[in-house]
Amino acid sequence: MFEISDLKSKKLPELQEIAKGLNVAKFKTLKKLDLVYQILDVQASNPKIVEARTEKSTEEDKPAPKPKRSRIVKAKPQAKETKSPAPKKEESKDTNADQKTASSPTPAPTTEDKKEEQKPERKPRQHNKSNQGKKEHQKTGSQQNSSQQNTQQNNKPQHKKNTHHQKGGSDKNNSNFDKDLRNKYKEPEFEFDSIIESEGVLDIMQDGYGFLRSSDYNYLSSPDDIYVSQSQIRLFGLKTGDTVLGNVRPPKEGEKYFPLIKVNKINGVDPQVVRDRVAFEHLTPLFPQEKFNLAERQSTISTRIIDLFSPIGKGQRGMIVSQPKTGKTMLLKDIANGIAANHPEVYQIILLIDERPEEVTDMQRNVRGEVVASTFDKEATEHVRVANIVLEKAKRLVECGHDVVILLDSITRLARAYNTVQPASGKVLSGGVDANALHKPKRFFGAARNIEGGGSLSIIATALTETGSKMDEVIFEEFKGTGNMELQLDRKISNRRIFPAIDLTSSSTRRDDLLLDENTIQRMWIMRKYLADMNPVEAMEFIEQRFKQTKNNEEFLMTMNQ
């Protein structure tokens, strides 16, 4: 094994000979320092080859085990062979030839022969710094008589054995040095734990673990999913629909997803608070008592009419009943923008089921709220999955005291999707509706409630009527009495190009006395009695004309005295 100090002390031709013996590629074109490091790299990668070469050289260098015949002149070539450097095969052949000529019968060795003997001794001795004292001893021995020189030759095999043991110790040191070199050139390992912070909605699998779904993919399976272990779900008491914010780390070898390593917030609240929450099913529902102010900032005629004739409160379960092409989607958009402008504390979700893709894009660009959609080109199973996870997310937010609004378009198509997914029970209603299929959409719509002690879930859904489908009529009849706010749209009004096409006489809110003040209730009582004698088209024309002449609802109520 070669050390870097030994290699640097050698000349370039000697290094090239060593590199040739180690099969170093392109060693003739390298500079001295580059060649030194190349030899060390080859030595580090193939230590067994270097050790095998050194062991062969030591075995060849061992003298014959007959110390008594050391006085004979013919034994001197063997001593010369021991002095020759091991890795140089070509030089060893030349030295053997020189030794044959030098071994001719001469009476006594001359001083020139002694010098030639001493020169090859220096090359192998340079590998070990500990043998410098022995060189001086050999120089003094060259000036003495031949008998002293013969005794030195008798002692040389013992010195050779000692140097061999010293080489074994230096090999261990070299191997440790090579490991240090390899550690220096090893690529640094970077750890990105707790750097990335991500958020998602938890979807728990049947096996107990779960994934944080991304809203960019409508809470369906995606490459952005974050793995949540079963122990974390148990530790923090997580449920399906929890919005979790935490730190993640990149996946290691054999892992497929980014795992969650730290939970910072759950539903915008500290994890310790969420652990003691009451389940949504055990919360006390109340009538809506706080009204959404839709007639102030960013108000339109549609939102002003809704604010007076059928007010929407926190925890309202409202239904917009409409025929096709009556402007229900535009009305839903106006309601969403009015709530977002006047009530920034409300978390708003626009859920579009079985709608056109261009309407989804229009909603995403024009509404300030989270838009979750499953267009009509998707399967019914995807409609159901998206609706379920949105409902679970809303429930978890309400459990933590938030006010949530879901604008659903439309509940009729959601009920159709549930009817498609529902396995056949054998009981089929008229229109092909399964008897058990409407239970889940009813549970979705019935989740809207005002919670005692804080928090509310409001659902405003659209329902289709007079589409020519018997199934739609059955679905509408099932949902007709479940809501506490109803807004009827009339096709005759929309045909006159009067928008919003609201049938004022049939639109109302249950217990609106909890939402409106006493003065407004009295004036609206008079207004409804006045409009009852008109048909829906005349009533809408009259109200639209008066609303255009006033800036806000307070001014409109004051003009009723005139």
Low-confidence stretches at least 5 residues in length (pLDDT < 50)? 57-64, 75-169
How big is the Rg? 47 Å
Number of helices: 22
Q: Examine the secondary-structure arrangement and name the CATH architecture of the domain at 285-560.
A: 3-Layer(aba) Sandwich
Distance between the termini: 112 Å
Helix amount: 40-55%
Structural class: alpha/beta
Could you give a short account of the major beta sheet? Answer: 9 strands, mixed
SSE layout:
Blueprint: H1 4-9, H2 12-21, H3 32-45, H4 47-61, H5 76-83, H6 89-102, H7 111-125, H8 132-142, H9 146-184, E1 196-204, E2 210-213, E3 226-228, H10 230-236, E4 243-248, E5 258-266, H11 271-274, E6 285-286, H12 301-309, E7 317-322, H13 328-342, E8 347-355, H14 357-366, E9 370-375, H15 380-399, E10 403-409, H16 411-421, H17 439-446, E11 449-451, E12 456-464, H18 470-479, E13 485-488, H19 491-495, E14 508-509, H20 518-531, H21 536-548, H22 553-558
Organism: Arenibacter aquaticus
Domain Rho RNA-BD: 195-270
GO molecular function, one term: ATP-dependent activity, acting on RNA
Salient structural properties:
562 residues, alpha/beta, OB fold (Dihydrolipoamide Acetyltransferase, E2P), Rossmann fold, 9-stranded mixed sheet, 5-stranded mixed beta barrel, 47% helix, ATPase_F1/V1/A1_a/bsu_nucl-bd, P-loop_NTPase, hydrolase, helicase
Short synopsis of the structure:
With 562 residues, the protein is an alpha/beta fold.
Explain what this protein looks like in three dimensions.
It is built from 22 helices and 14 strands. It is α/β, with parallel strands linked by helices and 562 residues long. Among the domains are: 1-39, no CATH class; 196-272, OB fold (Dihydrolipoamide Acetyltransferase, E2P); 285-560, P-loop containing nucleotide triphosphate hydrolases (Rossmann fold), CATH 3.40.50.300. The longest helix is centred in the N-terminal third of the chain and has 39 residues, at 146-184. Residues 50-64, 78-97, 111-123 have a biased composition (Basic and acidic residues). Residues 195-270 form the Rho RNA-BD domain. It is an enzyme of class 3 (hydrolase).
